[in-house]
Amino acid sequence: MIIRRFFILLLSISLLAGTARSLSAQPRPSEEQVETEKIFIDASREKVLGNYENAAYLFKEVLKRDKNNHAAAYELARLYDVLDNVDKAMASIKMAINGDQQNPWYQMFLADLLDRKGKYKDGAKIFEQLVSEAPYNEYYYIKWAFLLMKAKQPEKSIEVYSMLEERIGVSEEISRKKQALYLGIGQPNKAIETYQILIKSDPHNIEYYHLLASLYRQLEDQENAAKTYEKILEINPNDAQASIALADRQKIEGDDVSYLNSLQPVFSKPDVDIDLKIKEILPYIRQVVDTPNEPVMNATLQLATILEEQHPKEAKAYSVSGDLLYYSGRKRQALKKYLKARSLNNTIYSIYDQIMYINLETNSYDTLLTISNEAIDLFPNQAGAYYFNGVALDFQQKNQPAISSYQQALLMARKNPRLQFDLYARLGGVYHRMGKHSLSDSNMDKALQLNPKDFNLLNNYSYYLAERGVQLEKAKKMSALANELRPNQSQFQDTYGWILYQMKEYESAREWLTKAIDNGGNSNPGILEHYGDILFQIGKTEAAIVEWQKALEQKGGKDEGLEEKIRSRQL
Predict the structure, then answer these.
(1) Cα–Cα distance between 344 and 317 in angstroms, integer?
(2) What is the pLDDT of residues 99-112, one digit of tens each?
(3) Phi, psi dihedral angles at 26 (to 5 degrees)
(4) Is residue 48 part of a domain?
(5) pLDDT at 40 (0 to 100)
(6) CB within 10 Å: which end of the chain, N or C, has fewer?
């Protein structure tokens, strides 16, 4: 809009200057003429200031005083255009043209308005006339051809481009436009011929050969595409794009490993752009992520190693290796690559994200806290940095700082429901640990709304309620659903049994705890203790003491609560 206003101002000044020169050759202007010029100047000032309504009013005043003032009519048309009143703009520009039929600016503006009204043929006729008056003006031809194309007259549009070529010679821009039109009307041979003519105009311009080769590939003519790429390599043996394209033939035949191996010579050239190399192997990194394939992964990793060797100062080279190693299960090796990438460029958040994620997965919470603090300093607007920071603090049971980080992450995660879910669930856990049960429950409920079938959430939330002996029916339903989602899991069976225990349904509770022990719970001291408590409640004191004793042994013989139960033979 600023450029447009500046253009209008220059044109206004030019028109005004012309008017002034015209007046200088005439007798002294009348008072009426001076006043009209003053209003014109005031109108131009209002327009530049953005006061379009005021400017339009003043230009209309000029026309009331001087109906032949084509400059004012033109300016009024431009204002109506800005105010999105195309019909009034059209009427005003026609008034301007009546006053000066030779002004090309007026004609072009009318053509633009006709374009906006969908009257493409009428707009094209204007540029046809302009071409006849200025046969070497390239812009007129291009606009003429463009409007003919919009009028669904592609053949005529091609004719206009050919006329322009006769005037100025063959050019890449015009050739691109012509070949696109030929393809649009189903004449691929003509499209090919267009690029062949372009090549003849400059046989040493490799980019023209690339255009032709890409066209052949678009037309699925792989043989001629290959011949064209071979011609490129004759001119420039180091052309990486041509080498990669020729290697693509093996990819088309379905041999991914052979294709990747064929890229090694290109990847070994340090002067080939690293982004071009990465673009070629990116689909295979995704393939390794989706469907692990060891031969493909090894071939891709080999290329990533060459990337590191040829681009040792590029962080993205090590990041590629890190991704491949991570998704092939070699997390610690991947971490080394990500750390190297970070040392080369610490402005890429995704690298920090991967480093933090690996530290979380390997339970390296001290390191996670350090790196997440660094990430927060460098990327204060990234929710993930605060999330990982909160997890590290949470693990260290630094409750309030963890809550602060989680809440900050929540503020930034409004468009990420998965992250919101995790944050609410973790906040619920921290508040539970602090004994702030209402806050724990409200956050757990928010998480449940976002994902009502997450088995970990269902199990934890139901256990929290059972532990406190509240909302037991709700806890029972959640635990039952968790067991449906993940049957034969001892931890869920223990939770469900413990809820029944709290509801004094001891026999049913014993059945569930028996299932938990049969599914591996006999090595879990918590489950063994719960089982002992249930046995005690149904009058099997000796059996209860046996289970308590097992639980105590699992804990290394140190637990005051268990020791008291065994000694007193009471709960």
Answers:
(1) 10
(2) 898 999 999 999 99
(3) -105, 175
(4) yes
(5) 86
(6) N
Beta-carbon count within 10 A of 123 CB: 26
DSSP code for 314: -
Q: Nearest Cα to 206, choosing from 174, 225, 227, 231?
A: 231
Residues in CB range of 109: below 8 A, 6 or more apart: 74, 77, 78, 81, 93
The CA distance from 492 to 535, in Å, is 19
Distances (CA, A) of 542 to 213, 338, 498: 86, 57, 20
Task: Record the pTM.
Answer: 0.67
Question: Considering the domain boundaries, does residue 253 fall inside one?
Answer: no
At 17, list the tokens.
């200057």
User: Hey, what are 426's tokens?
Assistant: 């973790």
Segments forming the whole domain that contains residue 104: 1-117
CA 269/CA 106 separation, integer angstroms: 56
Residue given tokens 């991967």 in the structure block? 354
Any idea which residue has 């131009």 for tokens?
A: 44
Distance CA 40, CA 11 (A): 13
**What pLDDT score was predicted for residue 454?**
95
- Tokens read off for 538: 């149904």
CATH number for position 83? 1.25.40.10
| Cα 497 from Cα 495, distance rounded (Å) | 5
Give the Cα separation of 139 and 483 in Å (integer).
Answer: 72
The structure tokens 């990465």 sit at 278
CA dist., res. 470 & res. 128, Å (int): 84
* Overall residue count recorded for the chain in this entry: 571
pLDDT at 252: 62
CA distances (Å), 327 to each of 288, 319, 346, 435, 498, in order? Answer: 7, 12, 22, 40, 39
Predicted confidence (pLDDT) per residue in 152-183, tens digit: 999 999 999 999 999 999 999 999 999 999 99
Give pLDDT tens digits for 360-380: 999 999 999 999 999 999 999
The pLDDT value recorded for residue 516 is 92
Q: What is the pLDDT of residue 418?
A: 96
Cα separation of 415 and 356, whole Å? 21
Asked if residue 85 belongs to a domain, the reply is: yes
DSSP 30: P
Number of domains in the chain: 1
Contacts of 137 (CB under 8 A, 6+ apart): 130, 131
Separation CA 328–CA 330 (nearest Å): 6
Is 47 inside a domain boundary?
yes
Sign for the CA dihedral angle at 156, 158, 160, 162 comes to negative
Q: Give 434-443's long-range contacts (Cβ < 8 A, gap of 24+).
A: 434/399, 437/464, 437/468, 437/470, 440/464, 441/465
Q: Measured at the alpha carbon of residue 167, what is the angle toward residues 166 and 168, in degrees to the nearest 5?
A: 105
pLDDT in tens, 433-467: 999 999 999 999 999 999 999 999 999 999 999 98
How far apart are the C-alpha atoms of 546 and 568, rounded to whole Å?
Answer: 14
Nearest by Cα to 545 from 568, 525, 523: 568
Enter the DSSP assignment of 28: P
CA distance 397 to 133: 83
- Average pLDDT of the residues in 134-148: 95
